[in-house]
Specification:
Layout: H1 2-27, H2 31-34, H3 36-59, H4 61-80, H5 85-113, H6 117-148, H7 153-156, H8 158-172, H9 190-208, H10 218-240, H11 254-274, H12 276-284, H13 289-318, H14 320-338, H15 347-373, H16 382-417, H17 422-451
Length: 474
C-alpha cells in the first residue's frame, strides 16, 4: 500500500519529462520557462520533505500519508486540465508539495510496520525498488501516453490511482496517533520549521536555476550563501530547542551520517545516466519516446530482481555495508563505460551491456543505504529520518542534474565553436558528463569504505526501532 503511493510520486518525476515538447507546443511555453514545469515540482518537493516527516511523527504518519495522496491527486487533475502556463506551474507546485508529504513518511512507516530485521529488509527492498526503478518506468509510461493519447494523460493517470490508494490506505494501514502537537516537549518547533524549509527550498531553487546563471554569478553565490546561513541557523536552533525538529544526536551514528552522504553523491552521479542517457538515445541514436522507455527498461528489471530478491538476503547475511560497496563499484564501472559511447553507436552493442551493471549495482546499493539511514531512527522520529533520507536524495539529484547537464552543454558548445559536427559534439558532451558521474560514485564508494562501520548486519540491529540508542555507532 505504501509503495503504491510512493510509486505514483516517483513516476511523476520522470513521466513529465517525455511530455515536455508537447506541453511547450500546446500551452505556448517559452524555452526559458519550460524548465519550470519540472522545477516547480522539485522546489517544494525538496523543501518540504523534512518538515512533512516531522509532522508525521507528531500527528500520525498514516494521517500525513493520506493527506499527501489527496493533495497530490487533486493537483494532478488540475495539471491535466491546465490551459495556460501559469495554471500548470501553480498546479505543479501544489503537486510537488503533495508528493513531499506522501514520500516523507513512507520509509518511516515501513521501518515501524516491520520491526523484525529480516522482514524489514524485505520491505525496504520493495521500497528501494520503487525508488530506483520508478524513474525508468516513468520514461516508458510517459512515452506511451504522450504518443498514443496526449500529454494531459501523464497527469490524469495519477487520478484513479490516487483515489484508490487514498481509499484503501484508510482501511489497510495501521492507525498511529503520533507524539502530539500539544504535549510538552513534543510540539512543533515553528522557528526551526521555517528555517529549514526556507533553507531547503532556497537551496533547491538556487541549484535548478544554475541552468540560467553561472555557478560563480552573484545570483547563484548570493542565494546559495543565504541558504547555507539559514541551514546553519537551523542547526543552532536544533541544538538548543526543547522540542527540536531534527534530533541532531542521530548524526553521531557514523552509519547514518555516512549513508546520507553516500546517497547524495550516488544519486548525483546516477543522474548522468537517468537524464543524459535518455538524451543520447533520442538525439544521437534517433529513438522515439516509446523506444527510449523500452531501452531504459532493462535497468528497472535488474533493479527489481536484486531489490526484491537477492539484496534483502545478502543484507541479512552480510550487513548493508558489505552489500553497498560492490554495488557502488558496479555503478561507477557502468558510468565509466558509458563515458566511452561512440558517435555511431549501437544500442545492443554499446548501451545494453552497460545497463546491466548499473541496474545490478543500484539494486544492491539502494536497499543498503535505506537500511543504514534508518538504523538509528526511533518510533518517535522515524518520519523525520525518512524525510531526511528523501531530502538528501532530492538535493543530490538536483545538484547532479545541474552540474552534469551544465558540463555536457558547455563541452558541446565549445566543440561546436571549434567546428565539430552536432552529433559528435553532443556525444562528447555526454561522455564527459558520464565520466564525471562515475567520479561522483567513486567518491561515494570511498566515503562508504572509510566512514561506515563494518560488522552491521540485520541480525545485529535491534528488533524494534525503540531499542536504538541515538549515540551508538549502529
Amino acid at each position: 500500500m505504501l509503495c503504491s503511493g510512493q510509486l505514483m510520486v516517483i513516476l511523476d518525476g520522470t513521466i513529465v519529462n517525455v511530455a515536455l515538447p508537447a506541453i511547450q507546443t500546446d500551452l505556448g511555453f517559452s524555452a526559458s520557462t519550460l524548465a519550470w514545469v519540472v522545477n516547480a515540482y522539485l522546489v517544494p518537493f525538496g523543501g518540504l520533505l523534512l518538515l512533512a516527516g516531522r509532522f508525521g511523527d507528531l500527528i500520525g504518519r498514516k494521517r500525513v500519508f493520506v493527506t499527501g495522496l489527496i493533495v497530490f491527486t487533486a493537483a494532478s487533475l488540475l495539471c491535466g486540465v491546465a490551459t495556460t502556463p501559469a495554471m500548470l506551474l501553480v498546479a505543479r507546485f501544489v503537486q510537488g508539495a503533495g508528493g513531499a508529504v506522501t514520500s516523507a513518511v513512507t520509509l518511516g512507516m515501513v521501518a515501524t510496520l516491520f520491526p523484525q530485521p529480516r522482514e524489514r529488509a524485505k520491505a525496504i527492498g520493495v521500497y528501494s525498488f520503487v525508488q530506483s526503478a520508478g524513474g525508468s518506468l516513468g520514461l516508458l509510461a510517459g512515452g506511451v501516453l504522450t504518443q498514443t493519447i496526449s500529454w494531459h494523460w501523464v497527469f490524469f493517470v495519477n487520478v484513479p490511482i490516487g483515489i484508490a490508494a487514498a481509499a484503501l490506505a484508510g482501511r489497510i494501514l495501521r492507525e498511529d496517533n503520533g507524539a502530539g502537537l500539544g504535549k510538552e516537549g513534543k510540539g512543533m518547533d515553528v522557528v526551526g520549521a521555517l528555517l529549514v524549509t526556507s533553507a531547503l527550498m532556497l537551496g533547491v531553487y538556487t541549484i535548478v536555476e544554475t541552468t540560467g546563471y553561472d555557478w560563480i554569478s552573484a545570483h547563484t553565490l548570493g542565494l546559495g550563501a543565504t541558504a547555507l546561513v539559514l541551514l546553519f541557523a537551523f542547526c543552532l536552533r536544533q541544538a538548543k530547542a526543547a522540542n527540536p525538529l531534527l534530533r541532531l544526536g542521530i548524526f553521531r551514528s557514523r552509519n547514518v551520517s555516512g549513508a546520507l552522504g553516500v546517497q547524495a553523491l550516488l544519486v548525483a552521479g546516477m543522474f548522468s545516466f537517468q537524464f543524459l542517457c535518455v538524451l543520447y538515445l533520442q538525439k544521437v541514436l534517433g529513438f522515439d519516446e516509446i523506444r527510449t522507455g523500452l531501452g531504459i527498461f532493462p535497468v528497472s528489471v535488474a533493479i527489481g530482481a536484486l531489490s526484491l530478491g537477492l539484496s534483502p538476503r545478502l543484507i541479512a547475511r552480510f550487513g548493508p555495508r558489505a552489500v553497498l560497496l560492490p554495488g557502488l563499484v558496479l555503478i561507477a564501472a557502468g558510468l565509466a563505460a558509458l563515458g566511452r559511447i561512440p558517435v555511431g553507436g549501437s544500442y545492443v552493442v554499446d548501451v545494453l551491456p552497460v545497463l546491466m551493471p548499473l541496474g545490478i549495482g543500484f539494486g544492491l546499493a539502494m536497499p543498503s543505504l535505506a537500511t543504514l539511514a534508518m538504523s538509528s531512527a526511533t518510533s518517535e522520529d522515524s518520519g523525520t529520518a525518512s524525510g531526511m533520507f528523501n531530502t538528501m536524495q532530492q538535493v543530490g539529484s538536483a545538484f547532479g542534474l545541474a552540474v552534469l547537464s551544465t558540463l555536457a552543454a558547455a563541452h558541446t558548445e565549445t566543440l561546436l565553436r571549434n567546428g565539430a559536427d552536432a552529433t559528435s559534439a553532443l556525444t562528447d558532451g555526454y561522455q564527459l558528463a558520464f565520466r564525471w558521474g562515475s567520479g561522483l560514485v567513486v567518491a561515494a564508494a570511498i566515503l562508504a569504505a572509510v566512514v561506515l562501520k563494518r560488522p552491521t548486519t540485520t541480525q545485529d540491529l535491534p528488533s524494534t526501532p525503540e531499542l536504538v540508542d541515538e549515540g551508538t555507532d549502529r
